[in-house]
Amino acid sequence: MAGIYIHIPFCQSKCYYCDFYSSVKLSHKKEFLNALLVELNLKKDFLKKQSITTVYFGGGTPSLLSAGEIQTIIDKIQSSFQVDTNAEITLEANPEDLTDEYIKNLSTTAINRVSVGIQSFNDSNLQQLNRRHDAERAIERIERLKSVGLQNLSVDLIYGLPNSSLDDWKHSLRQFLKLNIPHLSAYHLTYEKNTVFGHRLKKGIISPITESESIAQYNLLCQIMRENNYLHYEISNFCRPGNFSIHNTNYWNDTHYLGLGPAAHSYDGNIRSWNKPNLQHYLSDLNDGKLPPHEKEILTETDKFNDYILTRLRTETGINLNQIQTDFPVFFNKTKEKINRYKNSTVLCSFDGNRFRLTEEGFFVSDSIMQEFVEIED
Ligand code: SF4
Question: Is this prediction's pTM over 0.90?
Answer without folding.
Answer: yes
